[in-house]
TrEMBL record:
Protein name as catalogued: phosphoribosylaminoimidazolesuccinocarboxamide synthase
GO molecular function, one term: phosphoribosylaminoimidazolesuccinocarboxamide synthase activity
Organism: Prosthecobacter dejongeii
Reactions catalysed according to its record: 5-amino-1-(5-phospho-D-ribosyl)imidazole-4-carboxylate + L-aspartate + ATP = (2S)-2-[5-amino-1-(5-phospho-beta-D-ribosyl)imidazole-4-carboxamido]succinate + ADP + phosphate + 2 H(+)
Superkingdom in the source lineage: Bacteria
Signal sequence, start to end: none
Pathway: Purine metabolism; IMP biosynthesis via de novo pathway; 5-amino-1-(5-phospho-D-ribosyl)imidazole-4-carboxamide from 5-amino-1-(5-phospho-D-ribosyl)imidazole-4-carboxylate: step 1/2
EC number(s) recorded for this UniProt protein: 6.3.2.6
Keyword hit for Amino-acid biosynthesis: no
Domain SAICAR synthetase/ADE2 N-terminal per the UniProt entry, residue ranges: 171-342
Ranges that cross the membrane: none
Amino acid sequence: MSYPAPAPARLDLSQLGEPVYLGSVQHLYAVPDHPAYIVCETTPAGSVFDVGSIFSIAGNDLNRAIFRHAMYTRLTQPGTWTRVQSALLKEDKLGTTWRDQLMDGPLQTMLETGAHTHHVGMLDGETGDVATSGMPTTPSCYNVVRRFPVMKPPQRNVMGNFVFDYAQFHQSNTYVVPLEYIVRFGVTSGSSILRKYEALSEKERRAFEQELGLTSPMQAWQMLDRPIYDLTSKYEPEDRAVSKQEALLMSGLSSQHFTDTIKMALLGAWAVRDLLDEIGLQLWDLKWEFAVDQEELLFVDTIDADSFRATSTVSVDETNLIIHYNKQAMRDYYRLVCADWYAGINAAKAEAQKLGTPFKQVLKEGQAAGTYPITPEVDASFLDLQARKTALIKSHVLGEKDADAIRAGLVETGLAEAEFYRSRGLLADLLKLNGI
């Protein structure tokens, strides 16, 4: 592993200047005199359906930054992986062969030294000191991370068909792997993988089940005997599901390193589940990203409610209703409350794929021309409910309340969300989507 220059121990936020990157949910700043590092500022903005920042949740900037710092700190601690190992050994349904394969390799290293990550620490909002372990006295929205090259594959025209060229990844030793790794402990009703499955023929479904390692037909709100994973493109205009074979070729990694990233994604999912289990949240899926540096693999990018799907169950009108404590709640809001706009989004994506034009460009031009509905404002009371959810999770991470009190608060907020839909005549649609 090629170690960069020492990370900054203290930073003056007033000296950061303008962001070098303005993202949909975070801004990135160069660090004066420390070119090997980046400061990440989380924002309260939210993004769904690859549209960009279209809503804002009060306090979510700090809440997300805190979760990220806490989780990445956990990943570097051998004790985290000791708990993961214990959880794996207790899971009888995993199958001995599959479990042995998962426990061989990266886990053995992480049990001794913890995982490698790009995360350095969080800036104290008052002093500017970088807390590398534990929370700073004044938590902030600023985390310091190691900087890795981000390479975007150029789009090529091959006899009228558009493809992405990943040759540069095979010529580099240090970079962010151009894939998102999605780990699924179960299948939710809003899962993209379920929509894909339902569109297949019976023969195609059997092949898909075999590829994912399923032991029975896929259905909504199904917890799996063992987690599955699927892979999508990261640096194309919109996420695209890819096969394992294509993902290996896109990654630029050796087959061994590619296998290790898959194992790390699965093991990291158990580490997050361990944290959420304590407050009664059930983890369904999450996504990871990785970087490679010579022979070392590192967890990178964000880990927060934008990158995992966790739920609890509440009883509404004699039906068990799944409540989402992540941005799936926002996806469902747009689908149910803003159905015309959601249909326009899907139409714009189809048009962009046909034209070989970036989706956001097609959408923007179509909205200006009146082809697609303009992006709606989210009801303030609904956004307040989402703010309450993330604030409760933050309280758990900080140890501000005991787990039982936080669990009760999460359930109370979930019931209030059901009443929001009832007041708008949409509870039946919500129960159809998330009822079990």
